[in-house]
Records
---
Amino acid sequence: MINDTQWNLWEVFVQLKTGKPHEHVGSVHASDKEMALQNARDVYARRDKPVSIWVVPSDNIVATIPQDNEAFFDPADDKVYRHPLFYKIPKGVSVDIH
Amino acid sequence: MTYTDEIKKHLSIYAQRHGDDRLILGHRLSEWCGHGPILEEDLATTNTSLDLIGQSVMWLKYAAETDGLGKTEDDMAYLRSEREFKNVLLVEQQNEDFAYTTARQFFFDVYDLIFYSELRNSTDETLRGIAEKSVKESTYHVRHSSEWMLRLGDGTEESHQKIKNAVADLWMYTGELFFMDETDEILIKEGIAIDLNKVKTLWYENVSKIINEATLEVPSLDTFMQKGGRKGIHSENLGHILSELQYLKRAFPTAKW
């Protein structure tokens, strides 16, 4: 970007409990990885008490664009057999169906 | 805890000195709120500010208790005047720019971590508790300000010049961090206080390492050092700080928040 003097952008992922996934919480600007980690701590770990933080350069994230959506995601809509709906689920097991 | 009145008197002075350091530095850092160079650093600075003010509450509470005059930590913070404040002159120095703030913070943080690490061995349960809780906070503070020293010193020509000036100007205020008098002597004998000469040696080692790495020159310890703060003799800065810090409490003595 021309005339953008801001430092690089880093995406921040916070894990609140061991075994749980790191979840994306936002982004920070930073000159390098150590400062990105510290900035992430200062911005996103002020109230909760995470067990781990990841920072990733935003440039390194490969993402779909909205134009991809039909081709990428619509076909999943009508394929009911992809969901585990045809099994008897043992008592006491909960299944999270999206 | 069964201390003599003499010990209690010195314990109160001791707690005021270390509480005032943190209250005044915390206040100085809070002045950056909304003015940080970037949003992330604005939050980092105010996080540190709140840590220090939180620590000052514990110190001043203990100072009030040992004082035996029925005061509270709020009385200590809001109703004492300049000459009654016992903080070192370093912490009342102005923010100036980010380099000054960083150098001031770095000098204090390195001292703070060593001070608390040592204080964890105090015979006094309250001081041990304060040290135990605070040492975690100061571990992070040192990491943050050290990293900034490196980046400013070994950064651009401009950042190098600014941090070089800040180190040169603030160095003469560092000697007072290791000031000791009869209060320290009496409390050291009881195993309550710690020997700041030991802290001084470790401090110089640690500070030198980072300053060198930041491609700056390490000043000598054998140079003129300012003092006075521990005895209540302050720079003009403290009055300005207190006028802001104490305004609300003094204008509206019964205000609750």
---
Amino acid sequence: MVKVIVDGIPVDVPNGSSVLQACEKAGKEIPRFCYHEKLSVAGNCRMCMVEVVGSRKPLVSSCTQPVMNGIEIRTDSEMVRAARRSTIELLLINHPLDCPICDQGGECDLQDQTLGYGRDCSRFRDKKRAVTDKYLGPLVRTVMTRCIQCTRCVRFMNEIAGTAELGGIYRGTNLEITPYLEQAIYSELSGNLIDVCPVGALTAKPTAFRFRSWELKNTDSIDVVDALGTNITLQVRGSEVLRILPRRNDDVNEFWLSDKGRFSLDGLKRRRLDRPWIRQNGKLVESNWDDALQFVVDKLKSSKKERIGAIAGNLCDVESMFALKNLINKLGSDNLDCRQDSAYYDTSYRGHYVFNSTLNGIDEADALLIIGSFPRQESPVLNARIRKRWLSLTEQFPIAFIGEFLDNLTYKVDNLGDDPTLIHDLLQNKLLFNETLNNAKKPMIILGHGALIRNDAKIIFEKTLALAQKIGAISDDWNGFNILHHAASRVGGLDIEFYPKNKSLDTISMLEKGNIDLLWLLDADEIDLTQLSADCFVIYQGHHGDRSAERADIILPGATYTEKSGTYVNTEGRIQRSFRAVFPPGDAKEDWQIISLIAQSMNIELPYTNIYELRGCLAKTYPVFKSMGVDKNKMCSSIKNSEKNIKKQPLRSIISDYFLTNSISRASLTMQECSKARHANLTTKAAE
Amino acid sequence: MSENKMNIQPTDFTFDKESEKQIALVLAKYPKARKASAVIPLLYIVQDQMKRLTKSAWIPKIAMSVIAKRLEIAPIRVFEIATFYTMFNLEPIGQYHLQVCGTTPCWLRGSDDIVAACKKATGIKEYGETSKDGLFTLSEVECLGACANAPILQVDRDYYEDMDGQKTIELIEALKRGEKLTPGSAINRKSSEPVSQKQSLPENLRTK
């Protein structure tokens, strides 16, 4: 530790800290443009100047200056203030005065810091430079004349996103930020460029000129487009979610959010189901709640209990699944499934179906084996975390990959191929990578759904778990066995046992012809309903007129994740809660309420009347929900290695189009455009 | 790179035998993991190859992609470097690149006359233009590091020192005829020694 005095306040900071970090620890605000906590230090904006007392060169840029023992720093001397004034003045030389029409206005670092540290008027009388705008795809709008060349975007693309597409060309006053090719940025994290840009050079294209930052009301929420549980802030004006921003959580997503999570928001308003619909004479007809409830109640009453089934989708919150499970159970059926893809999980221990290492654990791992997963598409932010670890070990983080290798994973992997029987070879110490795994102190294995949705998933799972035990990935202080989920609702669904037990029907058998008379779909759109017999009565409870609503006999309009307060369990098993930002449109209701209403109409008593009682009941039934956050999970100590062999059938990726994986993103015009742009990207890439 | 000239970009680029030979020599100088360091030499090799093959020393954008692939770096990194250095031409230029130093010592010693002579002899009106016959491109460059022999006119990679207007015209006329004058001092001085009499390290002092 090093002792530093900042404006008379003594602070202790670790060796090698920068002066800026010391100043922050002392509670002093240091203005900055180019410095970003999660990016490398550039030191090119010169805004964070502080005075080091007694130094021969007293003015230093605090982000690049390492601390020395006993130095005294002044952050608010006349010298510092003059330096900041000059820096701002120089930055403003070529910055246009278009704040009134700039989307960044109101949340612009340059605007704020000019107000705080700049001069009161401009002395500049010359011509300003202008820069042509660049095309970065359908998500990021550019006004490059506003750019102050902090290079945060360049560093973000290089370091975090891992697709080095942006760079600074020319030099001096002519320096421009530009992509190499004039086409959409090939990254799933490009929306974060908008966040890191301190000025209005990079802004959101889909929502350009739609709102001012001070008009928005913030609500904390959880992203549901993948299973990472990215912490987000929903920004609302009136009854409309206008922007989704990542909320900092160093344990989960750090500062980042995937493009799908950020820009699907126009899908929240399109193709919405805002009133009940009932199928009459083969056609869906608008209806009202009274009729719809009566209709459902009659159907439920007249159906045989063992021929009732329910499937929960990928976007459901735990509360609505719990309520549905209670209702179906009380009706006397246990035909429940939250696995639309019919994936195999060993639910005997919680540690067998979650990401045990946790995201923070990735920062400690020293070897990684990925089986049947393509994390860049299944969870871009998690992928960035793997890349971060890979970069921090100066590329000495050995990663092997078994599965369908779609494209650049943004880190170097040893691509072993898509043959799952390689697991046999690994178990028998036959591969070169075995040595790496055996030598590693904290090895990690990520098992994805490319493997778990196969027919022989059970064998793959058991073999992989055996492999994890063999290489010492599971010990008292380290658990390197991980399942990477893609559905936001999945771990929660498994936690509340929303799956069939004993001889009850699972997704596949429920969808087979003639097995079931009444099928309740809770937001379930990723299933194939064509095999269902024509006289099977389908209740679709959900928010979008997507795939399943077409087959439904009755539609009960539900709420999206922005319109209800819900609990979500991410792939780590981390329990997080979101809050309601807006009300559901039209007659739509929160999902657990719909279920509760139906229960009431049938005189079935559910032991809760509001969401708090529901959560209390949930925590009582499943103690894991007693507190938020993530805990260590139990693992089986002696797993039996399966006798059977894995089939020699190649592993396939579970995602065909990253941008269109759920009903919200499919309804989003922005996502459709992204999908097209990505397709064009890949075509030119293939041509090369 | 101006937008209207983008359409002159060729659609493909491959190194020829001569270039491959040079690349092998260059890459041998760097450790394998650090071969990205060879980006500047490779850019020169591209420029030389273009001169050999098309009589115009410039670097097409597709060539940057080829370099990036060879050095296993992102193409944008090559693009950044190629645009940073003024020595790399990103658009086709004339067969001879006339580069006049306009920095203070050269300017004091009469670089304006050289510029005027270049313009007169080639018909070029402004810096950056290429003459109508496609033989010459005139550029102003910063200090060439040969101030003692100012003013300097650099033609491609050769320095013509101690120039004046008349000699510049003679040089350009010779180039038009396809002759190449010997580079170096135009007044036959030895390296950077004084034109008249040695002022420092005279022989008599040295022998003492």
---
Amino acid sequence: MNSFKGFVIKELYHIFRDRRTMLILFGMPVVQLILFGFAIRNEVNNAYIAVLDLSKDDVSEAIVNKLLSSGYFRLAEYIESEERIEAVFRRGKVKEVIIFEPQFAQRLRSEGTAHLRIVADAADPNMAKLLVSYTTAITNGYAQELGQRASIVVVPEVKLLYNPELKSVYMFVPGLVALILMLVSALMTSITITREKELGTMEILLVSPLRPFQIIAGKVLPYLLLSLINVLSVLALARFLFGVPFRGSFLLFMVESLLFILTALSLGIMISTVSKTQQAAMMISLGGLMLPTILLSGFVFPVENMPVPLQVISHIIPARWFVVIARGIMLKGTGLDYLWKETLVLAGMATLLLSISVRKFNERLQ
Amino acid sequence: MASEPVIVARNLTKRFGAFTAVDNISFEVMPGEIFGFLGANGAGKTTAMKMLSGLLSPTTGEARVAGYDVFTQAESIKSRIGYMSQRFSLYEDMTAWENIRFYGGIYGLRMDAIRDKAAQLLGRLGMEHVRDSRIGALPLGWKQKLAFSVALLHNPAIVFLDEPTGGVDPLTRRQFWELIYEAAASGVTIFITTHYMDEAEYCGRVSIMVDGRIEALDTPGGLKQAFDAQSMDEVFVRLARGAQYAE
Amino acid sequence: MSAVQAEALRKTFGNVTAVEDLSFAIEHGELFGCIGPDGAGKTTLFRMLTSLLVPDAGSATVMGCDTVRDYKQLRRRIGYMPGRFSLYQDLTIEENLAFFASIFGTTVEKNYEMIADIYRQIEPFKKRRAGQLSGGMKQKLALSCALIHKPDILFLDEPTTGVDAVSRREFWEMLRRLKEGGMTIVVSTPYMDEAGKCDRIALMQKGHILGIDTPDNITGSYARPLLDMRGADVYRLILALREFPHTHSVFAFGESVHYTDSRSSADPEALAVFLRSRGFANITIEPIRASVEDSFMELLEQHDG
């Protein structure tokens, strides 16, 4: 145990004494969060909506007011019939039409549910999704004000409505967590191991009585801890800077993060076993892990939008599964009962990769 | 050869922050001399070499190399000097001919001139048969001899050799020195660093740097006499021992 | 049983044979030198003996442990210093030492007397990072790190390469003291002049051992008559001697030239006459005993020829 402690301490020295490592570890998550945050936030602003109010009661009026006062929407016009919807969209100014069903307030009070349809302009699917999610969030917020039993069922209608789950501007946070964990865990691990090879210190470690798993554990544990700290700091920043909600179980989220981190660390170790120099390790990490994580995980481009071959490939991207899990827990508050499949896949990947990497990590030079 | 010195350094100093790497060194080197530039690790040899080859500006002092000022005419200096070190010599993934063509091109030699020189050079080294072999596949000794010849390709006035014989077997080392002698006899000035003290004896004159200063400069015979030593090794040890832990 | 026993060790990398059928033994308490230029196979040999590489053929035992089968046991008993002083540049002297002690499950305090002699010389700078040390200090630190777990045998791969003459000398003094304390030391070096510091040496070239014996026996078995010549212009002297009909070899050696004759005995008088005819006055000619370097070159020529 003593030798293990010494190993971890030494690894922490490396981390805290290298300004570049510190910057990647702690500066980059903040910068990325802010960049992504503002880039995406600035998209929704003063979007024009049209309202078809078949109820014309106090509740529908209140919801429209709520929407308009949110700052995201501006009223283009009230329309009188469904036939007008297409015409409104064709003019291009209006991005979204909101339709209240007849007797909206009455149904809400007597039956506890009322239906609200949202038709969004399918020309810009990302924007459409954002608008629908904003409207939904604001409407739900209003329903909660009314009382526990009142629920407004929002029926979104976007022609490209491939994904009827809640889509919001907050979508990027789970993806970002995945990206940062991949970067810190895989990239930094592969670099720190190959650095020892370059230095020649790996030879001394190998001829010492340390077992390969001890070397791996000693190298990896500090990065695991730092990764967890990174998860916390990204969540905190997202919450306080952008008001991103966290609806599900925090504990579950951390456990899932741990699984994902283990997967990423194993990938980092595997990369280090095939690269001789830090440069090579960095190139493989960036090209082989970072790009797929950004492009194929559904973080930036929805998986459902991809051509089928890419969708198939996306299954082997660990981040793809983690992004689904993280979005579920954070934004929808879902638990293990819904996410068990993804969790199982991730756990399987972690176990498989970890055992491969420990085995591949040779106790000799060749 | 009654001529001007090819290297003149006067009170040359280089500081990095508070650290003085080269401290007020002065010396002259004549054309065709083999000048040994010795010193312990960290004594400032590399920094001094960089200043003389126009890669680094001195903090104070002056120096002229091949007639050019190191402050204002660094580019002209570079065209008149050759350089070879143990670490960087030739591109391993290129053939002997490709390396020669590349270096010839860098120094603005015409293609037919490069071709002539390559044939001449490979012939003299007895390496015609490896003209189209990759450098990486050649024995270390061959690489070094070839690298030295390539450094002479553009007829430089001075060649800087930074530990050129490190790790080479004693036979190849001597063959290498014969190339050096041959070049010097043809008028090229050789400026060489080495850790082999017996090689210091092969030099016309030797300077020994300690902590950034030149503590001794004379012929090997003169130095041995002055320090009452049997070998250059002893001279070196006596001079450097005092400085060991002062760093 | 010998401290190291190698039987027909062989290792190839691709189509390069780094070490070819090496067999030798190193006794307990011996200071054994592997001497040869780059590419002689010294590092590959060391890596096989320290269990870092598995030989393609042959076998070796170190301190009674088979280097392949008993490698776990072996690794507790050896101290290994790879080339290039493998230290953590961003850790201080004391942090490096404490780390290497910890991976062997020990502490600096517990084994201090093992390294005291060497470590005391760098202890005043213990808060300094390894990256800022001079070559000589790095070398001392690396040796301390290799000794901190009280190994039974030390493998030092080119510990003096790239280090100045003063540090090299001091380093050999340290090794001598360790040997007096009973340590078995296997060291490699490209410097022929360090051969004399070893009890026995193996002269290596291109994966082969050209000769293995005490330095005295190696130089003593030098067969050719050897003459040391001193004169003003060494280069011209060499060129002139090459034209002498009975010359076997002529090499510069420090300030003098070593000449060997192709006959069983040399004739200094005839040489002097020959040189005078070529315009060399005041050449001293003296028969001398061969050095390790002379022997090495002779063995090289025999081997290649």
---
Amino acid sequence: MMHPTLLPRLALAILWAGLGNAQTPSGPSEAECLAVLAATNAPLASIAAALRSLSTRSTEASIPVLQAYLASPAWSDLARGALETLDHPAASAALRQAAEAASGSTLAGLLDSLGRRRDPDSVPLATRHLKTPDAVVAAAAARTLGRIANEPAIEALVSVASDHPRPLPPYLVEALCVAADESLRQRHSPQFAARALAPLDLGSLPPHGLASVLRVRAAVPSEAAVLDAVRDVAHPAASLIAAHLVSHGDVSAPTHLVPETVASLSEPLRSALLIVAPSPSNSVHELFLDLTQHAPPDLRELAIAIAVRRGWPPILAVLWEQARDSASRASAEACRRLAAFPNDAADDFLIRQLRSAPTAADLILAADLLGRRAWAPAADAMLELTAHSDSAVRIAAWSALRDMVDARGLGAILQRWTDLAEPHEVAAAEKTLYAAVTRRAPDTAPWIVAQLSNAMPTVATAARPPLLRALQRIGGPAAVRIVADAAASADPAIRDLAARILIEWPDREALPWIEDMARRGEPAALRPLAVRAVLRWTSELELAPDIRANRLLAWETMMASEDDHRALLAALGQTPSVLAIRRLRDVLAHPNLVNEAASALLKIADAASQLPADELRLALEQARAAPLAETLRGQIERQLANLPAPPEKARGAHERYRARSPAMVPAPPPPPAQRSEVADP
Amino acid sequence: MRESTGFVNSDRQPKLPSRPTQVNISEALSRRSAIRRLATLAGSPWIVAARAVGRDGAVAPSERIRMGAIGIGRRGRDVLRWFLQQPDVQVLAVCDVQEARRSAAKAMVDRHHGTSDCATYRDIRELLARPDLDAVVIALGDRWHALAAVWAMRAGKDVYCEKPSSMTVAEGRAVVETARRFARVYQTGTQRLSEPNHVLVYELARTGRLGRLHTVYAHITPGPTILDVRWAPPEPEPPPDQIDWDAWLGPAPWRPYNSSYVAGNWHGDADFHTGAIGEWGAHTIAQCLAAMEPVPPAPVTIEPAKGPSGNGTRLKFANGVTMILESAGHWRGSCGEWIEGDEGAAGAADGYAAADVSHPTLLRESRRCLAAYQERTGRALDHVRNFLDCVRSREPPVAHAKVMHRSMSLVHAANIAVRLQRPLVWDPSAERFADAPDANRYLARAARAPWLFG
């Protein structure tokens, strides 16, 4: 039979265990938490967990239990946390009641919670503690009153501040500012909010205090409230702070500014007001018009800068005239502003200038600016301009098109291609063509290749190379066939260019043609490049390494120079196979190629874990004995040290090899026990 | 919602997405960017020197930005090192509740500057009372981030604060309000908002190269996001000169001392940590939001994944984009984002040589794209440098308080939805859940006195 006291103890233990998991979604219920808090022998951790849980699930039923914990220095913070979020008037009452008897940090915390609940009934309590010598409590009381910000709270703060010796402590200044801001937030009148700020000495106010003063004074329903506020405050930093408030939308800017007012303002407030001046508004329109035409140079420049940043279309005509005057210093800046104008009103404007430009210089300027703005809808107009009679205009149009087109514009570009002949024009158009074929959707390559292929026979010889290079940028089997056809052209310039393009082809689709070129040795000047391209692509073929090595070695007879051989050795180094190792071993005897052969062997040794270790060891030992660069020898030593020790059978193979070429391979060191038995060969 | 000056017909859009040099119209016209435009006006003397707003009496800004470091454990010293590498930074003081850390950081700073006068403080309030500091870097435990930032800004300092920047939505709001009221420059340590690989991803998305966005993936730490409160066995408190336990706890709920907390075992404890979503999501949700700009301030529906991990939680935005929180799947490194549109996808994470993209053509104009970003924003592709530049210019840095609070609010909201295991609708304007009073009770927690936000 169970002991009569055991059952409740067991229940409590289960409850405590459950509270350890307090933060899981299924956490303890309010009743379970309260049971723990009511128990006299609950562990501290369980009490903490229960109080923490109640911060999200307490109801009115929890208030009496929580109230008991409010007075405890250890638990008061968690207990008031559970009450702070509880939307019930009794929660405030419990906090107030606890505060009546509390002191020190506990009292400060309780006052803070009452302030967060904006409990108007706490005003007398907080007021009593405003003058306490405990700075933490006094600050909490002041802040609480600032948050409540009703009439009694503000009166209490004002009264204490008025009697306080100067300078006021920062917490009191802050509380008064909070009260003013909070009062505005609660939609009290600005006059009411201003009462909170009355005790403040403007001359010694910190900037954020001055900001509060300006916020309150600028909150009155007056057209020029912020200007009046700055004037009334008459503080050296008032303009600066007002500019900050205006820029952040904390205070309203006047809706009707006149040039005289703007001219009378100091910076930075003037800039701020011009930037945020509400629009559309005829008055703002007139203001900017006036400032940009009649103001003194400094103010005029400021107005232009702000008008540009606001994207105000009428300023475009001013900028255009400045830009056209290329002799003036303002021209470059005007061009920059037109190019960076923040909306497409500038594009429309420049298109209009393009269509109505009286001179070639204007056309070039408009084309250049539209190009810098990369405005795609201007592409049609720019294409029209590529047929202009003036070659400078045509070149400007091609340059501008570069940032406007993608592959969808290729057809139109190629239509113009038949007219191209001048080298400078071809050079400008070439970049546009490359931009168009580069900006393509993934599945449009065949269509682009077909377009380029169709255009090829129709264009002048001088305009054909860019088409071939464009095909190279696209790559793939269809493009390579067209270039290969061009490589058979009767025109030597086209033939050589096509051959070079094949050699530099970005993928291995061109390998058969390059092999053919290399075998034929034509064009002769490109043969070494062709051979190396063959070696490079062959070494990257997805074939078994031995087969790749075989294909590489088949080219050995075509090697015409030591450089060719070096390229072959490098390719063999990327082909980890027994065949490659054996050939490299042979080359180690060549004094001019020994370093390259050893490097290739090291690459194979790095890459090939599947190769027979004895083959590798023999080759590396042979390399070690060769007249190598010292850095390579060191690498070979390290590589040899990493290889597994040769078994007896391998030693036999080694011996056989030594017998075959005794001069090349030094004897391996014998095992210590057998050293005396090994005869020198 | 776009704000218009009315000067512009903003309905007209370019036909092609590839306009990297084009100025974003909505940004160019927003009131929020007015301050930036103000600051970049040539010759405009409005730029506020750090001490013009923060401290009285001084006239001209010094050549160096004088800084203090608060919280100088392993992470804190790493961040401090980044600052010391900047030529215009002078660290004058360090602060930590642990004596060993204070000594180590002082030695590091003195060695760097070739001096011996770096001051050490145990109490953050003493460091903040120094009038000669322009800015502070805060790398305390998560529980302290918001409070230390609020106190520092009230003391007139600009703040670079490690993430996660708040433990609750209310703490984040306090940081935003303080930065606004005291006109302080605040940057949260979400450094991937300034790293080239990531910035390229945001720019690819912003300039339409990925087409219309439909899904974004935010990387979260593998592990639980719903945490327990785990008390270690009580141990005798060391002398405050060695470890000030009361200050270590700060605003977090009281518990008895145990050395393991101080050694770093506070991670994963609900009193001190924001879980798997907060740990990396503090970065990656901000990263995804950067790619989604402009993000409408409209309600977000949060559909939590089953279980305590949060892995698979979905956040559905009013513009049709779904953000999925994932602990694995799209990345080879940590803290990544992956952005998908109907014309392409891109993403980045730690350790990438270049951003991952669905098609290589997206990388072809990366230099130009990044140059256009810098031209448009005037921001350095270096988070610390961006902060220091803003300390001088008074422009908002890339991860300013509102940016931080917007993403951290989603971190907290997602955590709450996972905790309650039911869908919730988060209203970012009201900073409340719609029709969920029980969920709204998780949005704040009482700070422990005397470590109060005030």
